[in-house]
Amino acid sequence: MTDRPLALVVDDDVTVRDVVHRYLDRAGYRVLVAGDGEQALRCVAEKAPDVVVLDLMLPRLGGLEVCRRLRRDAQRVPIVVLTALGEEEDRVLGLELGADDYVTKPFSPRELVLRVASVLRRSRELPARDVDHEPVVDGDLTVDVPGRRAYRDGRALQLTTREFDLLAFLVRRPGQVFSRAELLERVWGWDFGDRSTVTVHVRRLREKVEPDPTAPRRIATVWGVGYRYDGACGATPAAAG
């Protein structure tokens, strides 16, 4: 047995696969590689990797469809997508489909390793500042922060790692306004990055936690500033017992 996490690298470019494989191996990961989308899905089904590095431009079965199927069949596996510099639309769509992070090509292998470590750590651990023994109840929404689970109308919500981190952060700080830059840093520990990532994740969260995502009551937009958690009925810890 080994406690080294297993990473799956999916890219049809042999050079990219070899470089990423080498850097992840040096960082302490076991590494699997796949050259197309169908092979990637087989690897996930058979080997259950801890994290997936996924190129969006793949032969046979595209990366976006792979991402969609992974989120359908392996909800919790963290996904870092690789996109070309000019593929902003695909990058945003990848986030909307449930990718946890992205790196644009050409990329720094060291940065990629840091991104992989970040999404993997957050999928396994709860930041100490958010630990609380009581769930948060807001109308039909319940957020079990230490258990990393959320429910609406008693049904479990399928949230990605980044979506849950954002929800847990906001729901513990009702009424406070945060800019997108603040959320990048305080929720995910990024002191740099594309702020549209926050916008995408807020949109996805609203689709899952709002009664009407087109008229959000819980996650409010403060125009020109950022976002604030108002709550449908006022977010409070659940009553004991």
Automatic annotation (TrEMBL):
| Residues recorded as bearing 4-aspartylphosphate in the entry | 55
Q: SUPFAM superfamilies, from UniProt?
A: C-terminal effector domain of the bipartite response regulators, CheY-like
Transmembrane stretches in the record are: none
Q: Which InterPro entries match?
A: CheY-like_superfamily (IPR011006), OmpR/PhoB-type_DNA-bd (IPR001867), Sig_transdc_resp-reg_C-effctor (IPR016032), Sig_transdc_resp-reg_receiver (IPR001789), WalR-like (IPR039420), WH-like_DNA-bd_sf (IPR036388)
Keyword DNA-binding found: yes
Keyword field: DNA-binding, Phosphoprotein, Transcription, Transcription regulation
User: Where does the OmpR/PhoB-type domain start and stop, copy by copy?
Assistant: 133-231
**DNA-binding region(s) in UniProt:** 133-231
One matching Pfam family is Response_reg
Question: What residues does the Response regulatory domain cover?
Answer: 6-120
Matching PANTHER family = DNA-BINDING DUAL TRANSCRIPTIONAL REGULATOR OMPR, REGULATOR OF RPOS
What is the official name of this protein in its record?
Response regulator transcription factor
* Species name: Pseudonocardia humida
